[in-house]
């Protein structure tokens, strides 16, 4: 989904007129549905071949396929379009307004690259036979941090410049620490 969001956002900034006049109206919903369906299919296959009816060879092949699709196709595309969007917005002579959506996307992609990509790369290389000092506990913590950061990013970016939320949050922290 991050890859699809990065591509769509980049295209809407690079060619806004084309996106408004020629882009199919329900394209975002269709792509999101297809990606959710693909994710559901791959996870269901993973559950069947790796848990219910364990087949070491099939499970390994499926996990290598998922890892390759994720880190050799989706991540480079997401990175390419995110960097293109970032450079276009920041280096533009037109002083394009960077809104909250741009900030959310950039922070989400940045934290994904920091926490998820190295872990996924190590797991993929481990399945391919290269051995690292991979610890499932560290992987679990990195995955949790990556997943937990998104709501924090959305909250902080959404409440940026909103004084009422800052005051309410400050008051809540003061009350919590008074006890």
From TrEMBL:
Q: Where is the signal peptide?
A: none
Domain G-protein coupled receptors family 1 profile, chain residue ranges per copy: 1-154
Domain of life from the UniProt record: Eukaryota
For this protein, the record's Gene3D superfamilies field holds: Rhodopsin 7-helix transmembrane proteins (1.20.1070.10)
Under SUPFAM superfamilies, the record lists:
Family A G protein-coupled receptor-like
Residue ranges spanning the membrane: these are: 30-49, 61-89, 101-125, 137-157
What's a GO cellular component annotated to this UniProt protein? plasma membrane
Q: Which UniProt keywords apply?
A: G-protein coupled receptor, Membrane, Receptor, Transducer, Transmembrane, Transmembrane helix
Extract the GO molecular function terms from the UniProt entry. Answer: G protein-coupled receptor activity
Primary residence: membrane
Keyword Membrane in annotation: yes
What does the UniProt entry say about where the protein is found?
A: Membrane
Q: What does the record say about its membrane topology?
A: Multi-pass membrane protein
Q: Which InterPro entries would you find in this protein's record?
A: GPCR_Rhodpsn_7TM, MRGPCRFAMILY
Kindly give the PANTHER family that the UniProt entry links to this protein. G-PROTEIN COUPLED RECEPTORS FAMILY 1 PROFILE DOMAIN-CONTAINING PROTEIN-RELATED, MAS-RELATED G-PROTEIN COUPLED RECEPTOR
Protein's name according to its UniProt entry: Proto-oncogene Mas
Organism, by scientific name, is Chaetura pelagica (Chimney swift)
